[in-house]
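Suppose a colleague, Dr. K., hands you the sequence of a protein chain of 337 amino acids and asks what its three-dimensional shape might be. Before reaching for any lab equipment, you can write down a predicted structure in token form. Begin with the sequence itself:
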Amino acid sequence: MKIAIIGAGAIGGLVGAKLALAGEDVTFIVRGANLDAISRNGIKLVSAEGEEQVARNVKATDRYDEAGPQDIVVLAMKAHQVEAVASDVPKLFGPDTVVVTMQNGIPYWYFHKHGGALEGTPVRSVDPSGTVAAKIPAQRVIGCVVYPASELIAPGVVKHIEGDRFPVGELDGSASERVNSVSACFTGAGFKAPVLDNIRAEIWLKLWGNLTFNPISSLSHSTLVDICQYPPSRELAAAMMREAQAVAHKLGIEFRVTLEKRIAGAEKVGKHKTSMLQDVEAGRAPEIDALVGAVVELARLTETPTPHIDTVYSLVKLLARTMEDQRGRVKLHEIAA
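The predicted structure, expressed as tokens, is then:
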């Protein structure tokens, strides 16, 4: 299959490399150092055990029209980065092209084929201008939840840390030919890609932890185990999760694990810095609105009070604005004795 990967970061690089190694026709849509490296050398995948594989049968370009129509387009950048590329994505479309969305958090298409009073409601937190929905129609979308952890360790070089699950699903829950084709393609590359009949429930399950631990860690500069083992922050996380659960329940979502089990799972990860904390330390714009702001928006739509989420959202948004205004980053440094 012809597959375009938009973004060759940690996840896009992992997915594209594995698909190419499985024999798929992969084109990376990339810029800068990644474009130069992949064009010259292909993309290198380093396993958790240190084994290296190089997919040289890949193409790389920064021109969407040069790539041409694809069978599958994988959107592999963060949610707040999608609008900047949305107008170019249609250059990759043929009559039956599907778009696999790999963003964390509530997606722009959430209420498409959702049913009920909120059917068709736009999610302005992740698509303020409506550009993404207009240029990347939800009718083309296959939802996907990303569970693997990986790292871009150099231009064109991705290290796979752990995990292989990419559950996929149609927005209406149907077991269509095209979603089964995407699943088979990913499975052939060595991933676990079950077809789910409720992709939104899986999105909420992952988001349940992300919307709490990411902002708390970025504000406190603490790891997952630190947050879970310090009683005040553990209770704050639990309070935010209870509020999110109330929102989800009003939208017809049931969680298949308990709140305490979800917190315990985060605690077991140990001294891990969340992606939002890593962004704050590196001076990158943190992924706030898809993870937290969209939940606040859905809370208002469902008339659900979320005082703890609202407070944390306000604080982390202020942190992001301060970093942007001062062109700075925030990182703790050990004080010499």
